[in-house]
Amino acid sequence: MSAERRLQVLRAHLAPGDSSAGACHALSRHDTAGASASSSGSAAPYASADGKPTSYARVHGAVSREPARWRRVASLGKEELTDVIYEKAVGEGIAKITINRPEKRNAFRPRTIQELSWCFGDARDDPEVGAIILTGAGTLAFCSGGDQAVRGKGGYVGEDGIARLNVQIRRLPKPVVAMVAGYAVGGGHILHMVCDLTIAADNAVFGQTGPKVGSFDAGYGSTHMARLVGQKKAREIWFLCRLYDAHEAREMGLINTVVPLAQLEEETLVWCREMLRNSPTALRVLKAALNAAEDGQAGIQELGGNATMLFYQSEEGNEGRQAYLEKRPPDFTKFKRLP
Ligand SMILES: CC(C)(COP(=O)(O)OP(=O)(O)OC[C@H]1O[C@@H](n2cnc3c(N)ncnc32)[C@H](O)[C@@H]1OP(=O)(O)O)[C@@H](O)C(=O)NCCC(=O)NCCSC(=O)CCC(=O)c1ccccc1C(=O)O
């Protein structure tokens, strides 16, 4: 962004018409400050060329950058959570799931996977939750993949393993945002890739280590990666097992944005809050559609499920059911055959 444009945006942000005095709007503070952070979402809709707030800014107003007030969910059902911290933001529809094994760089063991699965299930079923953050405890690692000390001959897949967790995140009809500080490597790298968005701190490091430790993911971990970064790059990442910093990761399309470590949660919350303003059904169907393009029959099934859910909410859908219950022929004549 040019210095002049940045100034315009800053002016627009401070303009009296901006109802958001005190709270920052969705425009990244890092963009306004000209820091090294880079964001794919430009500030364009928030200020017009003359520096005044656009109608978009006037209508939608500001997104709060305030910290969330987290309420901890210590147990799900009868089970205490030991490997994962599960929290919900008070008064807003955000859940946060934190892998809590920092002494192991948040490597997951079967128990971790099981708890993650419960938390994702709860967040999916909670109608108040509209966006889910997945992260790792501490600043050194998001997740370093499968705990190699407990890896058995059968891997983790048979015990609610990562393969199933990936599918669960893909199928979850709400956006999941990976909030990455430090290492996201091995299975941890795959976890962030299957999330819908990735916000990274400037200390984040990305890569696959599988071929070094006798492991690989021939599912989403390779095929979805190729969709994100292209075939050549995906082969480089897997075959050479190099590590990439956050800016390199953003350049290659692995992640959405990079922010200073101290602002990681603030920025992630802003992205979640922006999404929460939008139609949940639109986001849900878009996620299913974007997945369907690469998920074959399973993806179409998911998209089809959404179509049915919407149709059941319509008058036309209800007419069929009602007619059956009333033992009369359905009258579909009143419904237009739209072009
Ligand atoms: C992440 C590192 C680069 C961080 O390096 P550094 O900051 O120097 O910290 P360390 O001193 O190395 O680590 C601190 C502490 O943590 C332990 N640890 C870290 N990662 C792991 C791990 N993955 N498993 C077990 N333990 C781990 C480390 O040993 C230290 O403990 P001490 O007791 O203090 O010694 C670096 O740590 C690193 O490279 N880690 C390993 C990364 C890795 O190779 N991960 C595994 C990739 S393969 C994978 O994830 C399998 C996925 C999987 O399970 C799967 C997926 C799909 C289908 C099947 C399977 C399957 O069953 O295998």
TrEMBL record:
Superkingdom to which the source organism belongs: Eukaryota
Any one GO cellular component localisation term in the record: cytosol
InterPro entries: ClpP/crotonase-like_dom_sf, DHNA-CoA_synthase_MenB, Enoyl-CoA_hyd/isom_CS, Enoyl-CoA_hydra/iso, Enoyl-CoA_hydra_C
Biased composition (Low complexity): 33-49
EC number(s) per entry: 4.1.3.36
Keywords: Lyase
Example of a GO biological process term: menaquinone biosynthetic process
Signal peptide: none
Disordered as annotated region, ranges: 33-52
CDD domains per record: crotonase-like
Sequence similarity: Belongs to the enoyl-CoA hydratase/isomerase family.
Name assigned to this protein: 1,4-dihydroxy-2-naphthoyl-CoA synthase
